[in-house]
From TrEMBL, chain A:
Annotated GO CC locations: plasma membrane
Annotated family: Belongs to the binding-protein-dependent transport system permease family.
Annotated localization: Cell membrane
UniProt-recorded name of the protein: ABC-type nitrate/sulfonate/bicarbonate transport system, permease component
UniProt membrane topology term: Multi-pass membrane protein
Claim: Transmembrane helix is one of the keywords in the record: yes
GO biological process entries: transmembrane transport
Transmembrane segments: 58-78, 99-128, 176-203, 215-233
InterPro entries tied to this protein: MetI-like, MetI-like_sf
Residue ranges annotated for the ABC transmembrane type-1 domain, each copy included: 50-230
Taxonomic source organism: Nonomuraea jiangxiensis
Keywords recorded for this protein, A-Z: Cell membrane, Membrane, Transmembrane, Transmembrane helix, Transport
From TrEMBL, chain B:
Entry annotated with the keyword ATP-binding: yes
The organism of origin for this protein: Nonomuraea jiangxiensis
Pfam family, one: ABC_tran
Swiss-Prot/TrEMBL keywords: ATP-binding, Nucleotide-binding, Transport
Matching InterPro entries: AAA+_ATPase, ABC_transporter-like_ATP-bd, ABC_transporter-like_CS, ABC_transporter_ATP-bind, P-loop_NTPase
Protein name: NitT/TauT family transport system ATP-binding protein
Segments forming domain ABC transporter: 2-235
GO molecular function: ATP binding; ATP hydrolysis activity
PROSITE patterns documented for this protein: ABC_TRANSPORTER_1, ABC_TRANSPORTER_2
UniProtKB/TrEMBL annotation, chain C:
Name of protein: ABC-type nitrate/sulfonate/bicarbonate transport system, permease component
Domain of life: Bacteria
Pfam family, one: BPD_transp_1
CDD domains: TM_PBP2
UniProt organism field: Nonomuraea jiangxiensis
Assigned protein family: Belongs to the binding-protein-dependent transport system permease family.
Amino acid sequence: MRVVRLLALPVLLVLAWWAVSGSSFYLPSPDRVGRAFAETWFSERLVLDVLPSVGRLLAGYVLAGLLGVGLGVLIGLSRRLRATLEPVLEFFRAIPPPVLVPLIMLLAGIDTPMKVLVIVSGCVWPILLNTVEGVRALDEVLSDTCRMYGVRGASRMRRFVLRGASPQIMAGLRQALSIGIILMVISEMFASSSGLGFTIVLFQRQFQIAEMWSGILLLGLLGLALSVLFRGVERRVLSWYYGSGAERA
Amino acid sequence: MLEISSLGKVYESRGRRVEAIGSITFGVGSGELVCVVGPSGCGKTTLLRCIAGLLPASAGEVRVAGVPVTGPPPNMAVVFQEYGRSLFPWMTVRENVELPLKEKRLPAGRRRELVGESLTAVGLIEAAEAHPWQLSGGMQQRVAIARAVAYEPQVLLMDEPFAAVDAQTRADLEDLILRLWRDLGVTTLFVTHDIDEAVYLGQRVIVLSSSPTTVMEDLKIDLPAERDQVATRSLPRFGELRGHVYRQIQRARGTR
Amino acid sequence: MTRTGSLGRLGYGLAGLGGLLVLMEAVPRLGLVDARFLPPASEILGTLAGQLVTPELWIALGETMRGWALGLALAFWAAVVLGVVIGIVPGLRGLTSSTVEFLRPIPSVALVPLATLLFGPSLGSTLMLVVYASFWQVLIQVLYGVAAVDSVAFDTARSYGLSAWSRVRHLVWPTALPYVMTGLRLAAAVAFILAVTAELVIGSPGLGAEIQVAQSSGAVPAVYALIVLAGLVGIGVNAAVRLLERRVLAWHPAVRSEVAA
């Protein structure tokens, strides 16, 4: 019954797709897209285009995470630093990240460093600002408790500051993940000779419509996989938070 | 063990100067249990935070075992009023109690021993692997008490620890404190706004005036050492002492 | 509340912004970074001021805002209507959940090639990307909002014979409104990002296309100036939606915290 409920609508949609697919040049039938998917992506492209793209995304994302959380904790712990930097940071966050692509191309060329830098520079702001907010909102009684019981230095950072701010940090990381995927794709669409974004645009230019659709499908699956992965990590890291019902308070 | 001499605290902000504590002097002998009561808003919590070294005093000083307090002293533990906020929600009960012991760099065996003993003493050994938010308010405050006890402090400070629990739980917790105090002989300063509680628990009761706070009276509680919720509270002497403190506090509020 | 009052905060904030400007002026002037790559702040702002008096810039800005507003409005109403229907028709939520969970994480930039084929560098491409991206933000929040309606209240309303329409009107909508506004706020920011992206990558007219042109013609100060402008517009968009949110929810008793989506 559960399976039926989960699959009924997707099956219906694919059938509908099948029914209308003949009518337009731009909409090949599902089986053609499926075949194109297998032929296109289960080949050396997986190693040459897909994996490097994902690798750059992860590298940029992890770097942005370290940078954002590190600086965020530093800024969040100092009231003056926070008051001084908040407007500047808000401004940087308000810049739509994709406009950084042409700028960073100017500065760092069109190779891997540029693409990673683009991802870092787009992902870091939501992480940074959310971390600042999380550290600012740390409970004062808990902070006093740490002082009273000699919890300080690295231990205080690990057991109190980072854990206490983790709900906001995770929220920032979640926002950053979707920005990271966008930047991965368009940094490759812009000026590149390899990568997922480049390949999909290439198919479009060469009117390989089924292949193009298979690329869109692959991007969708990638987005889905990353979001499922993220949710798994989040459930683990924040189990205490969901348990305590704090998110509804 | 604990000496507070001419302690004063003034809050200053942009042209406004609020004298929270005028001048407070009293002492707590080794192994004594002393209660502090005062009218609401008289700066009880400010006093406690100064004694704990969480807040710098503006005048005077606090000494613990002869050493002046400049920051939280290593031989002191505090039980805060806000039990819901003083336990780490991402740690289990056991981890909460064990954390200060880790910071003290006690060996694992000794830590296990202390955690086990203190959780048993507060009757929560079964809940060791639970998270604080799975427990009732009274139980959470027991965990905070267990954490303080396991820390093996020379001085234990309690800041209105039972202000936010129901009456039945409160009576149980009061007796728990008396038992622990008697078993461990730890010097205890208990801040409360509840006159009954102060007279019931204390060997002495310090009555504070309203802000700027001074000591109005340092009252010896000459009740039998063995206290009992029903028997002690129905003694005529208990009523006299309670009435006396009550009148003092009324007077303090009147002179405000 | 404490020592750093709101006036103090403002002072610190201005000092921070001033510091950024000084830094951006000094770094190229002192030759720490080649001024060809990072022009001094004064030159960037000068270029921006120069551009602000040209009609071209305002036309481009207008195009961007048109794509943003139209796309956001389309996505918003589609998501609200669909979300309410899915939320209140029994069983529909279970039927649609797998599809929603599959389609939602698809990055909207995946649609760039399709949009290019279907619409080319025009408003249509912008709208396609903007609508797809912002639709899910609103839909998810609407679903949360409708789910938050107390089932007792719902049964009460039914037992008093309220019609389906007045149940939606007087019970579902007011309960869901804070969530809807959260969705709108998130969607507005995403819509702006995607509007600029479509212009940048596909070449639909607007700010993004201007940046692309400036970059390929090597007009570095203009690239910076337009990015600063984009940031300012972004701040404006956020502020406007926040203001709207506060206005609409002024009567609401519960100030809702954001639902983790």
